[in-house]
Amino acid sequence: MLAYLYVEDPRGDWAYGGRRFLQVNLEMVRAGWADPYTVPPNVRYAHLYLEAARAKGRGM
After folding, report:
1. Are the C-beta atoms of 7 and 21 separated by less than 8 Å?
2. How far apart, in whole angstroms, are the C-alpha atoms of residue 48 and residue 26?
3. What are the residues whose beta carbons fall under 8 Å from the beta carbon of 21, sequence distance 6 or more?
4. Which member of 6, 14, 16, 51 has the lowest number of beta carbons within 10 Å of its beta carbon?
5. Which residues contact residue 30 at a Cβ distance below 8 angstroms, ignoring those fewer than 6 apart?
6. 48 φ, ψ (degrees, to nearest 5)
7. Global confidence as pTM
8. One digit per residue, pLDDT tens: the chain, 60 residues?
9. Any idea what the Cα angle at residue 12 is, between residues 25 and 19, rounded to 5°?
10. Are 25 and 34 in contact (CB under 8 A)?
C-alpha cells in the first residue's frame, strides 16, 4: 500500500513548478502490477485508478 508517490519524468501527466511528474500508484495500475484500493479520505484520484484498471480489464 502506497501513499500518493510522484517521480519526476518529462513524460509525466502531472505538472508542478514547471516540471513533469508520474504518479507511481497510477502507473502501477496502468501496467497491471496493482489493483486500486482507496481508503477515505484519500479518494481524490480514485476515479483515475478505476479507469486505468478497467482499461486493463481488471476493475469493477
Report:
1. yes
2. 7
3. 6, 7, 8, 9, 12, 13, 14, 15
4. 16
5. 52, 55, 56
6. -70, -40
7. 0.77
8. 667 899 999 999 999 999 999 999 999 999 989 888 888 888 888 999 999 999 987 655
9. 120
10. yes
| Cα R_g (the chain), whole angstroms | 12
**For residues 23 and 13, what is the distance between their CA atoms, to the nearest angstrom?**
8
Query: Which residue blocks in 12-60 are alpha helix, DSSP H?
Result: 24-31, 46-55
- Distance, in Å, from the CA atom of 44 to the CA atom of 31, rounded to the nearest integer, reads 20
Phi, psi of 8, deg, nearest 5: -70, 130
